[in-house]
Fold this protein.
Amino acid sequence: MVRMSTTRPYHHGDLRAALLTGAERTLREKGAGALSLRELAREVGVSHAAPGRHFKDKQALLDALALDGYERLTRALAAADRPGLPLEPRMTELGRAYLGFAIDNPELLELMFTRKHRPESFALLAAAVERSLGSLNQLIAEAQERGEIIQGDPDRLNLVAAASLHGTAALVASGALEAEAALAGIAESIHHLLYGLSPR
């Protein structure tokens, strides 16, 4: 009688992608604290040592998830950007894309903005942030050149816009604001962001 081995295989077609997919599912359903490389290996069907080929520890996996999140946000913003539009509708489209990403991925967004990344991941993540949110800085700088936005450091002005959008996303994530209402109100939010609340 031939004994069947119960040892899980080491190799997998695309183990890294499978681990990231499984990790994001766990992040959504149970939170970052529940992530375990050993458990992910079991779910994917590989040996418990196999994930170490791509991620040396749990934090490396979390950093990779954050990086993937920034890459997806970059694609979402690029797809929504309409350089030919006037400033307000263009910012509205970008704001809607950011808020839509945040609403669809609240746990991932929180992970992306955490400060608990490994030192060796800082450069990669900083570059990813620049690719995703740097386009908004460029938009503000160009609008300043046209006289459509006040002068000042584009990074500081972008921070005001990002804080407004991120704050709205946080209200949705906490249940204080319905996602539909947040998205429906994005044009008004951008208008007030650009023109302020003072009577005109």
Summary: The radius of gyration is 21 Å. The chain is about 65% helix and 0% strand. Residues 1-11 have pLDDT under 50 and may be disordered. The first helix runs from residue 15 to 30.
